[in-house]
Design goal:
Elements: H1 3-6, E1 18-21, H2 27-38, E2 42-47, H3 51-64, E3 69-73, H4 82-93, E4 98-101, H5 116-144, E5 147-151, H6 164-183, E6 189-195, H7 207-215, H8 225-237, E7 246-249
Parallel strand pairs: 1-2, 1-4, 2-3, 4-5, 5-6, 6-7
Helix pairs in contact: 2-8, 4-5, 5-6
Length: 257
């Protein structure tokens, strides 16, 4: 970070930079987009089946700052499409500076019922896609001396019961973060944010289970998407000497089991 960047206002810290965020139309991904955009970045919003939500998000941001967004729709499980995401950023904004691997599948896979399709889907979205997207973006990020932030999970470090495949996939993404930090140094920083109880699953959760989780979380409350977005923004703007690190944003859950 230059002296001028360190003295910039919160609304200009990422001025002139371009960020690509996967799974960006909804939930945590959308808040990351809003946070980076509010800091001045141009944003490339990736979606798959959530195009309507992506369009609404882009329209919201365009009202605030015209010509600052782009949308790319792609199935991340098809790795042949991943270079097109990087190309879209370059064609629209001239460069790619920040890659946020946020897209993720999440559902239980208890032992005894795991299928090959579940393995392919969970490993595909949580590990294979980030690997091949980082590879597709690497030369551009080296050119811009950019940044990768992977959204992992505290359950990649401590497994979640009945989520064998998901926990394994996130553990792989944690190791990928550290491996890429070595492979892409000194030009590209690579870090990860590990959320804890931030948003309840869309599929629903029993109230008793929610209370159990909160009672084992030292701060005794659920976090918000903005908590994760703030951590991403920290890596993007205030951590020029930090790479290969996993930041847990979990209300202390990872120490409160």
């Amino acid at each position: 970070m230059t002296q001028s960047e360190s003295s910039a206002t919160p609304h200009t810290r990422l001025h002139g930079r371009t960020a690509l965020i996967t799974g960006a139309a909804r939930r945590i991904g959308a808040q990351i987009v809003r946070s980076l955009h509010a800091a001045g970045a141009n944003v490339v919003i990736h979606c798959h089946r959530s195009r309507a939500e992506a369009d609404l998000l882009a329209a919201e941001l365009e009202r605030a700052r015209p010509a600052s967004t782009a949308i790319v729709a792609a199935d991340l499980l098809d790795v042949t499409t991943l270079p097109s995401l990087v190309l879209a950023a370059r064609e629209r904004f001239g460069a790619l500076d920040v890659l946020i691997n946020n897209a993720s599948s999440f559902y239980p896979t208890p032992m005894g019922s795991i299928t090959a399709a579940q393995w392919d889907d969970l490993l595909g979205s949580n590990l294979r896609a980030p690997t091949f997207l980082a590879q597709a973006a690497a030369s551009e990020l080296v050119r811009t001396r950019g940044l990768i932030v992977n959204i992992v999970d505290i359950h990649g470090m401590r497994p979640l019961r009945d989520h064998v495949v998901y926990s394994t996939a996130k553990a792989g993404l944690i190791m990928l973060t550290r491996a890429l930090a070595r492979e892409l140094a000194p030009d590209v920083r690579v870090n990860a944010v590990a959320p804890g109880p931030v948003m309840w699953p869309e599929s629903g959760m029993e109230e008793e289970r929610k209370q159990q989780i909160l009672s084992n979380t030292p701060l005794h409350r659920i976090g918000s998407p903005d908590d994760i977005a703030r951590a991403v923004l920290f890596f993007a703007t205030d951590a020029p000497f930090v790479t290969g690190q996993i930041l847990s944003v979990d209300g202390g859950r990872s120490i409160g089991w």
